[in-house]
Design a protein that fits this description.
The complex is a heterodimer. Chain A is built from 15 helices and eleven strands. Chain A is α/β, with parallel strands linked by helices. Chain A has a single domain, classed as Thiolase/Chalcone synthase (Peroxisomal Thiolase, Chain A, domain 1, 3-Layer(aba) Sandwich), CATH 3.40.47. In chain A, a hairpin with a 4-residue loop joins strand 10 and strand 11. Chain B is mostly beta strands. Chain B has one domain. In chain B, strand 1 and strand 2 form a beta hairpin. Classes of the chains: A alpha/beta, B mainly beta. The interface between A and B is large, with 40 and 39 residues.
């Protein structure tokens, strides 16, 4: 059964006073309103969230949201796949409609993080690592530092190429009213910012963020009846790579990205050349290169050239992270994959405002951990 | 104290060990202790924003042990660890040195149940 997306919304990302439940409700309500669908029509509700227990001491968020949104007695479930919880939510929502189990599925992703110190938030995120890694004080940023050094040394890529990713995504974020930072930065600022995990600096990293995003799914058949504009999920794939990061055969190959994108391309009957716009999981600037290579847009060790020659800019051949990416939009863990879906939906139905590019086919790649779990989604404009 | 890598019947080697081989799914029935071996730095970083209970700055490296002399399918195995110094470079040769506590078990997310984790381990000391 063809699966369509008929509504999408996101809250303002950033430092918010609201706690998780309020953020989730806000995005969920706005999404239903956007689609003109009543709560009682919802048959399945998925809530993408990584760590409400660790951050807020709150469990059972799916049931709480179902009650608050008035979607009872809909089936509800919390989806945790660390940073790719949002992408995994898209996968669950797609499955629920494709299988015939639900004709109307609401997905809401969210995380509340900024009330913790940076050290505490880093520790919660680092707790996903293997104990043999965790005891050494490894953090996700330090994996990025080690991988970036290897990439730059092995492929003789200029340090400036990473800063260009940050500058580009900050530029794109200026046009996103829901982005955490609507602020341009200069190459100098990026290259002279404090070192966080050598050779990476502050502007190579996404911020800590509160926020929520939502999408509404139904059958393609129903979408044609009730929606003026819609997008279709034409391909989706999910894959898991090693838990222990150093055990991977090649330190710069994200196996989960390769596997999940191949699965999605195969289902869609498409390839990398068919993509008009992509949202990638730029939790760290280096990840934009590794994913461009993983999804087959660039050969291994060459994606940095696309940052240098402007291919990935909004006016380039393959606009990448038109939303501002995690880098400037922010990264509320469980919301990020859903927010990627919101961006490509808005691009495909022509609702992206000043960020709008010409697009019929779009891809989103959501990465959990340091590539431990990956979901790749391909969406096309509905006809 | 030992730094054990697991070996499966097909000669695949991993550090740390796993109940089943990540490559082929066979049981890892044997192991090799790498604590007396030397390794080479593949990549490294110095983290200047560390979580509670972790030294700051924290220099970490992924190193590669040459195990070709064991005559197995895999000829090398990698491991991650803290470095004894901030003065390290890709290609440096290191040897493992044991430390009782790599981070403070009484601080941070796992401080409520410190017994869940082994806190001792090996740092890499450039030769």
């Amino acid at each position: 059964m063809g699966v369509a997306v008929i509504g999408a919304s996101m809250t303002k990302f950033g430092q918010r006073d609201a706690w998780l439940q309020e953020l989730l409700s806000q995005a969920g309500e706005e999404c239903l309103d956007d689609a003109g669908v009543t709560p009682k029509a919802v048959e399945h509700l998925y809530v993408s969230n990584m760590a409400s227990g660790e951050f807020e001491g709150q469990g059972g968020v799916m049931n709480a949201l179902a009650h608050d949104l008035g979607v009872l007695p809909a089936y509800s479930e919390r989806v945790d796949q660390t940073s790719s919880s949002g992408g995994a939510g898209i996968y669950e929502a797609w499955q629920s409609v494709a299988s015939g189990a639900s004709e109307m599925t609401l997905l809401v992703g969210g995380e509340k993080m900024t009330h913790k110190t940076t050290g505490q938030a880093t520790d919660i995120i680092a707790s996903i690592t293997h104990p043999a890694e965790y005891k050494h004080g490894v953090t996700l940023p330090s994996f990025a530092g080690m991988t970036a050094r290897h990439y730059l040394e092995r492929f003789d890529a200029p340090r400036e190429s990473l800063a260009r990713v940050a500058v580009k995504n900050h530029r794109n974020g200026v046009d996103n009213p829901n982005a955490q930072f609507q602020k341009e930065i200069t190459m100098e600022k990026a290259l002279e910012s404090p070192i966080i995990a050598d050779p990476l600096r502050l502007y190579d990293f996404c911020p800590i963020t509160d926020g929520s995003a939502a999408m509404l799914f139904t059958t393609e058949e129903r979408a044609k009846e009730i929606a003026d504009e819609f997008a279709v999920i034409s391909g989706i794939g999910g894959a898991t790579d090693t838990h222990v990061v150093h055990e991977r055969d090649d330190p710069t190959t994200m196996g989960g990205v390769v596997e999940s994108s191949q699965e999605a391309y195969e289902m869609a009957g498409l390839g990398p050349d068919d993509l008009d716009v992509v949202e990638l999981h730029d939790m760290f600037t280096i990840l934009e290169f590794l994913q461009l290579e993983g999804i087959g847009v660039a050969e291994q060790g060459t994606a940095w050239e696309l940052a240098m020659d402007g291919t990935t800019q909004k006016d380039g051949d393959l606009p990448t992270n038109t939303s501002g990416g995690l880098k400037s939009k922010g990264h509320p863990l469980g919301a990020s994959g859903v927010a990627q879906g919101v961006e490509i939906y808005e691009q495909l139905v022509g609702e992206a405002g000043p960020r709008q590019v010409e697009a019929d086919t779009a891809l989103a790649c959501n990465v959990g951990g340091f590539g431990n779990c990956v979901i790749t989604t391909i969406m096309e404009a509905g006809k | 104290m030992s730094l054990d890598a697991g070996i499966c019947p097909n000669g695949h080697v991993s550090y740390p060990t796993h109940p089943r081989c990540p490559d082929c799914g066979e049981s890892q029935e044997e192991s090799v202790d790498l604590s007396e071996e030397r390794a080479e730095v593949v990549t490294w970083t110095t983290s200047t924003a560390t979580p509670p209970g972790v030294r700051e700055p924290n220099t970490l490296a992924i190193v590669e042990f040459d195990i070709s002399h064991l005559d197995l399918e895999d000829t090398f195995v990698r491991a991650l660890g803290q470095v004894t110094t901030g003065d390290v470079a890709t290609g440096d040769v290191v040897e493992p040195v044991y430390v009782d506590e790599l981070r403070d078990p009484d601080v941070g997310l796992k401080s409520a149940n410190p017994e869940s984790t082994e806190w001792g381990g090996y740092r890499w000391d450039p030769v």
